[in-house]
Design a protein that fits this description.
Largest sheet: 9 strands, mixed
Strand order of the largest sheet: 6-5-7-8-4-9-10-11-12
Radius of gyration: 26 Å
Strand content: 25-35%
Number of strands: 21
C-alpha cells in the first residue's frame, strides 16, 4: 500500500499548491484552496478482465498505420449524430455540459431509450422512479435500457461487469466518488480520479461512455480544466428558457468537426429534432414590416436562413443607445460607423436596437449586409420586399466583400422560396439553372438604391 499523500487544490480553477494559501494566484479567488488526498492506494476501480490479454504498443511507420474509417454506433438521432461527426466512436468518452434544467438528462435518456443496443444509464441525481416517470413520457417501451442509481464507482463497475452494456451514460460526473480518494464528491481529485477510471474502462473494453457535466455560473464546465482535456468530445447544450429551442454545439471533437450544430425543440414528450431550422427562425408574418431582413448563414455543413430585426429611433437622452441580442455589439458599432462615414446615413444621434429572432447567437460575418439592410429599412420606415435575402460581409471602406460557400447559401435560399439574394460581385458563382435572382453588388449604396431608391 502506498503512503497517503495530500495536496492543496483551488476549487475554482484546479491549480495545485504544496501548502495552503489564502488567495489562488491563478484565478485570484479567495478562500478556495482546500487540502485533498491525492493518493491512497495504487489501484483502480476498473480491473482489466483476466481473460483479456493486454496489448503492448509498438512504434509504426506512418505509412504502415491503417487508415480504415472508424466504425461508429448510430444513435438514431440525426442532430446528435451530426454534432458527433456521424455517431458514437467505440471506446470514446463524450462530455455533455449545459445549464441546470436545460434538458441534458432528457436528451441522453431519450437517446438511450431509442437505441437498439444494451445501454446502462447511471444516475447519481435522481431515483429510478423519477427516471421511470420521465421515460414513460418520452418513450414508454424500451427493453434495452437499464437504469442504475449509484454514485460509487466500485459498485458501478461491478454492475457493468454483470450487465455488459454496449453504451454507458453517467449522470453526472460531479456526483461520482471513488473509495481510493478521501475527498467529497465533486472535488478536483474525485472528478479527475473517476474520469480516469472511466477512460480506462472505455479504452480497454471499446465501450463508448457519455458523461453529463455541471457548469459554473460563468458557463464553463465545473471541475478541473484537465477534465475537458481527458475526454474525446466536449458538447455544449444551450438555449434560453424563454424559448422552446435548444442548440447542441461541439466545443471539442477528436473524431469530427467542431463547427456542426444540432437544433431541438423542447416539447412535453421530450426533445424533437429540428431538421429544417430555417422555418422556425423566420416569422410567417405576411404583412410587410420595416426593420426586418433575412440573412443566409452557415453553421458547420448546414445553411440557415435567419431573421434580423432592427429598430432605429430618435435618442431621447443625450447619448444614443446601442443594444443587441444574439449579435456582437462591437460589430454593430463598426457597421454603424461605416454607414455614417461611407454611405452618408446620419445615425449618430439615434438609438439602434438589433435582435436575431429565435434566441440564437450568430458570429458569421456573412450576415453583415442583412444587418445594414434591416437598420436602413427601419430608419427609412420602408419594408424590404418579401422574398429578398442577403449573404455578404461589409468592409470598413463600405465595400461588399465575398463570403465562403456562397453557392450553398444560394441553393438553400432558393429551396425555401426566396426570389432575390444579394451577394458580393467578387463571389465566383458557377450555379446553373437557378430560378432565384442573384443580385451582385459592390457597395452599400448599390443595395440602398435597389431597396429604397
Amino acid at each position: 500500500m502506498a503512503k497517503t499523500k495530500t495536496a492543496f487544490f483551488c476549487q475554482n480553477c484546479g491549480t495545485q499548491y504544496a501548502k495552503w494559501v489564502g488567495q489562488c494566484t491563478a484565478c485570484k479567488e479567495w478562500n478556495t484552496v482546500v487540502e485533498e488526498v491525492v493518493q491512497k492506494e495504487e489501484k483502480s476501480s476498473w480491473k482489466t478482465p483476466t481473460n483479456t490479454a493486454k496489448k503492448v504498443s509498438k512504434p509504426l511507420r506512418v505509412n504502415e498505420i491503417s487508415t480504415e474509417k472508424e466504425l461508429r454506433l448510430n444513435t438514431f438521432d440525426l442532430e446528435f449524430n451530426r454534432v458527433l461527426g456521424g455517431g458514437l466512436v467505440p471506446g470514446s468518452l463524450t462530455l455533455l455540459g449545459g445549464e441546470p434544467g436545460i434538458g441534458k438528462s432528457t436528451l441522453l435518456l431519450q437517446i438511450a431509450l431509442k437505441l437498439p443496443y444494451k445501454t446502462l444509464y447511471v444516475s447519481g441525481e435522481e431515483s429510478q422512479k423519477q427516471i421511470k416517470m420521465r421515460a414513460d413520457r418520452i418513450h414508454p417501451n424500451s427493453d434495452t435500457c437499464f437504469i442504475l442509481t449509484e454514485t460509487k464507482t466500485q459498485n458501478i463497475f461491478k454492475q457493468i461487469e454483470d450487465t455488459e452494456p454496449d453504451i454507458v451514460v453517467i449522470d453526472s460526473i460531479q456526483t461520482l466518488h471513488s473509495d481510493h480518494i478521501e475527498s467529497a464528491a465533486g472535488s478536483i481529485s474525485q472528478i479527475r480520479e473517476c474520469t480516469a477510471e472511466l477512460i480506462k474502462f472505455a479504452k480497454e473494453t471499446n465501450t463508448p461512455v457519455i458523461l453529463i457535466g455541471h457548469i459554473t455560473k460563468d458557463g464553463s464546465i465545473a471541475g478541473p480544466k484537465i477534465l475537458e482535456h481527458m475526454v474525446d468530445s466536449v458538447l455544449q447544450f444551450e438555449g434560453d428558457r424563454n424559448y422552446v429551442y435548444r442548440i447542441l454545439r461541439s466545443l471539442k471533437n477528436r473524431f469530427g468537426s467542431t463547427s456542426e450544430l444540432g437544433i431541438y425543440e423542447m416539447q412535453g414528450s421530450g426533445l424533437r429534432e429540428v431538421n429544417n431550422p430555417s422555418e422556425i427562425l423566420i416569422s410567417k408574418n405576411d404583412e410587410g414590416l420595416s426593420g426586418t431582413a433575412i440573412a443566409s448563414t452557415v453553421e458547420g455543413m448546414r445553411p440557415l436562413m435567419i431573421e434580423i430585426q432592427a429598430l432605429v429611433s430618435t435618442a431621447v437622452y443625450g447619448t444614443p443607445q446601442r443594444s443587441t441580442t444574439g449579435y456582437n455589439a462591437k460589430r454593430l458599432n463598426m457597421l454603424l460607423a461605416v454607414l455614417e462615414k461611407r454611405a452618408g446615413f446620419k445615425l449618430a444621434a439615434k438609438d439602434v436596437f438589433l435582435n436575431i429572432t429565435g434566441g440564437i447567437s450568430v458570429d458569421d460575418p456573412a450576415i453583415d449586409l442583412a444587418v445594414i439592410a434591416a437598420i436602413l429599412s427601419s430608419n427609412e420606415d420602408i419594408a424590404i420586399e418579401k422574398g429578398v435575402c442577403f449573404a455578404a460581409e461589409v468592409g470598413l471602406a463600405g465595400e461588399i466583400r465575398p463570403v465562403q460557400r456562397v453557392e450553398q447559401r444560394i441553393t438553400e435560399a432558393e429551396k425555401l422560396g426566396f426570389d432575390t439574394i444579394f451577394v458580393s460581385k467578387n463571389n465566383k458563382i458557377s450555379l446553373k439553372n437557378t430560378q432565384i435572382n442573384i443580385q451582385l453588388v459592390a457597395k452599400i449604396e448599390d443595395v440602398a438604391n435597389y431597396l429604397f431608391g
